[in-house]
């Protein structure tokens, strides 16, 4: 009976030891699975980041071209305005001065019609 008790105790000890080994193995597999998942996540993130950069580069180049075209058009319009100013600027100033200096008072049409003058 003492031998049976010792044998049973040995079996129980062996079972506990086996449970510890199985638990360690499960823990290791969970850690490995987490590490693998994290690695996959980082690879996927890097891939999507590259795709985004390519998309951004492709679409921002169109904006750059539009900005350059708008800048060229603006420069052309400014040059046209300066050309007009050079050719007609003196005449405009002359006309303004003439209008200010040569005052011709006139009775407004509405007052003349009412006979207030």
TrEMBL record:
<comment type="function">
    <text>Subunit of the V1 complex of vacuolar(H+)-ATPase (V-ATPase), a multisubunit enzyme composed of a peripheral complex (V1) that hydrolyzes ATP and a membrane integral complex (V0) that translocates protons. V-ATPase is responsible for acidifying and maintaining the pH of intracellular compartments and in some cell types, is targeted to the plasma membrane, where it is responsible for acidifying the extracellular environment.</text>
</comment>
<dbReference type="InterPro" id="IPR005124">
    <property type="entry name" value="V-ATPase_G"/>
</dbReference>
<dbReference type="GO" id="GO:0046961">
    <property type="term" value="F:proton-transporting ATPase activity, rotational mechanism"/>
</dbReference>
<keyword id="KW-0406">Ion transport</keyword>
<comment type="similarity">
    <text>Belongs to the V-ATPase G subunit family.</text>
</comment>
<keyword id="KW-0813">Transport</keyword>
<dbReference type="Pfam" id="PF03179">
    <property type="entry name" value="V-ATPase_G"/>
</dbReference>
<keyword id="KW-0375">Hydrogen ion transport</keyword>
<keyword id="KW-0175">Coiled coil</keyword>
<dbReference type="GO" id="GO:0016887">
    <property type="term" value="F:ATP hydrolysis activity"/>
</dbReference>
<feature type="coiled-coil region">
    <location>
        <begin position="27"/>
        <end position="58"/>
    </location>
</feature>
<dbReference type="GO" id="GO:0000221">
    <property type="term" value="C:vacuolar proton-transporting V-type ATPase, V1 domain"/>
</dbReference>
<protein>
    <recommendedName>
        <fullName>V-type proton ATPase subunit G</fullName>
    </recommendedName>
</protein>
<comment type="subunit">
    <text>V-ATPase is a heteromultimeric enzyme made up of two complexes: the ATP-hydrolytic V1 complex and the proton translocation V0 complex.</text>
</comment>
């Amino acid at each position: 009976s003492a031998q049976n008790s010792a044998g049973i105790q040995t079996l129980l000890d062996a079972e506990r030891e086996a449970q510890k080994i199985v638990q360690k193995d499960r823990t290791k597999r969970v850690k490995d699975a987490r590490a693998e998942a994290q690695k996959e996540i980082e690879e996927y993130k890097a891939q999507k980041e590259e795709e985004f950069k390519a998309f951004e580069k492709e679409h921002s180049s169109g904006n750059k071209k539009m900005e350059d075209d708008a800048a060229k058009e603006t420069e052309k319009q400014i040059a046209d305005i300066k050309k007009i100013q050079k050719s007609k600027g003196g005449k405009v100033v002359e006309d303004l001065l003439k209008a200010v200096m040569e005052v011709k008072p006139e009775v407004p049409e509405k007052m003349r019609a009412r006979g207030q003058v």
